[in-house]
């Protein structure tokens, strides 16, 4: 593992299961020690992996999940194959109860093959668990997901929503990179990814200076921390995060939410459309569009439209639900020409 000197900021929870609003509005990551230490799941995990697995098996019923299988040994990175034509793992659907039994069977095997259940809606695969293990979040419509597996490494990636990740079992190491390091992370394909989000091809455990010479610069700006059962981490929107699960049985429950209104679109759609319509223009035209986007989007303020009567601003007016519908309809009309 390459050295990351800066530690993620840490706070101690007051055991209320309610993160402070200031944390959930932060533009920097924060570890909250003991936020969910009173979860029955975390308390079972503190006793033993067997107790933790037994606890989760109470809730899984007949639920099926997508489970990834890969090589064992010391790597266990959920990643591409060598030429990025496919992946280094196979995926199948199995009953969650069978997956938990398999993980329990292999708990004492240091070289056990990768067994990993990625982001899965919590209430669908473990109904009733959230009644006993929950966080009080004053945020709009949080989506609770669960991640289950043995030792695994997840390449650095970002999420559009804000994220509160709570460790229910096992230990996890996080390395986080601020959004402005994207140029030093050597991001792979946008539309062919291991789990839906584009990932960094550089590996914090094995730095390839010849192939990824700028990655060491990214590491200078990185922050790291290790979490155990009962701890949580707030990861702001767009922060890149590399995650290692360090024990033979690991469970993470996370909550995603966006603070923007529901009528606003996904910013990833803008990137996709810009690749289609702007990136391959002649350089002078790209610069012209850079100026327009800066004027109307990135440097936007009231002065941009002060010369236009409010009644005549149309698409330049503040967006509300009706305005979003009109903009979306106009965009669809243009795309369908």
Note down, in words, how this protein is organized:
The strands form two sheets. The chain has a nine-stranded mixed β-sheet with strand order 1-2-12-9-14-7-6-3-5. The chain has a five-stranded mixed β-sheet with strand order 4-8-13-10-11, with no helix packed on it. It is α+β, with helices and mostly antiparallel strands. α1 links the parallel β1 and β2. The protein is built from ten helices and 14 strands. The longest helix is centred in the C-terminal third of the chain and has 16 residues, at 283-298.
The run of helices and strands is: EHEHHEEEHEHHEEEEHEEEEHHH
Round the mean pLDDT to the nearest integer and report it. Answer: 94
- Indicate the overall shape: globular
Radius of gyration: 22 Å
**Biggest sheet: strand arrangement:** 1-2-12-9-14-7-6-3-5
What distance lies between the first and last C-alpha atoms, to the nearest angstrom? 51 Å
Helix content: 25-40%
pLDDT < 50 stretches: none
Range of strand content: 15-25%
Number of strands: 14
What is the count of DSSP helices, taking H or I runs of 4+ residues?
A: 10
**The biggest beta sheet, please?**
9 strands, mixed
- Structural class comes to alpha+beta
Features:
9-stranded mixed β-sheet; alpha+beta; single chain; 10 helices; 337 residues
List the helices and strands and how they pair.
Blueprint: E1 9-12, H1 21-24, E2 30-33, H2 40-47, H3 49-60, E3 64-70, E4 77-78, E5 89-95, H4 96-105, E6 114-121, H5 122-125, H6 129-132, E7 143-149, E8 152-157, E9 162-169, E10 172-177, H7 215-220, E11 223-227, E12 232-235, E13 240-245, E14 250-257, H8 267-277, H9 283-298, H10 321-335
Parallel strand pairs: 1-2, 4-8
Antiparallel strand pairs: 2-12, 3-5, 3-6, 6-7, 7-14, 8-13, 9-12, 9-14, 10-11, 10-13
Helix pairs in contact: 2-3, 3-4
């Amino acid at each position: 593992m390459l050295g990351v000197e800066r530690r993620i900021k840490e706070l101690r929870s007051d055991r209320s299961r309610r993160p402070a609003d200031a944390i959930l509005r932060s533009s920097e990551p924060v570890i909250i020690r003991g936020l969910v230490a009173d979860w029955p799941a975390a308390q079972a995990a503190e006793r033993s992996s067997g107790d933790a697995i037994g606890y989760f098996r109470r809730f899984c019923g007949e639920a099926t999940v997508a489970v990834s299988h890969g090589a064992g040994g010391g790597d266990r990175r959920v990643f591409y194959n060598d030429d990025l034509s496919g992946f280094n793992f196979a995926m199948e659907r199995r009953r969650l109860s069978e997956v938990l039994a398999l993980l329990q069977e292999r708990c004492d095997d240091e070289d056990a093959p990768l067994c990993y259940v990625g982001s899965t809606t919590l209430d669908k695969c473990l109904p009733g668990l959230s009644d006993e293990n929950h966080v009080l979040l004053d945020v709009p419509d949080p989506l609770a997901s669960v991640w289950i597996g043995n030792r695994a490494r997840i390449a650095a990636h970002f999420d559009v929503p804000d994220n509160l990740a709570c460790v229910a079992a096992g230990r996890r190491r996080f390395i986080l990179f601020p959004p402005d390091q994207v140029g030093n992370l050597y991001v792979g394909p946008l539309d062919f990814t291991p789990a839906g989000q584009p990932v960094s091809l550089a590996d914090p455990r094995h730095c390839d200076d010849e192939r990824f010479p700028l990655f060491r610069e990214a590491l200078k700006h990185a922050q790291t921390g290790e979490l155990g059962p009962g701890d949580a981490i707030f990861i702001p929107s767009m922060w890149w995060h590399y995650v290692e699960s360090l024990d033979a049985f690991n469970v993470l429950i996370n909550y995603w939410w966006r603070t923007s209104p529901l009528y606003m679109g996904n910013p990833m759609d803008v990137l996709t459309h810009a690749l289609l319509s702007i990136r391959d223009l002649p350089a002078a035209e790209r610069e012209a569009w850079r100026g327009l986007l800066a004027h109307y989007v990135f440097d936007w303020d009231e002065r941009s439209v002060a010369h236009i009567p409010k009644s005549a601003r149309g698409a330049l007016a503040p967006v509300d639900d009706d305005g979003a519908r009109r903009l979306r309809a106009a965009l669809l009309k243009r795309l369908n020409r």
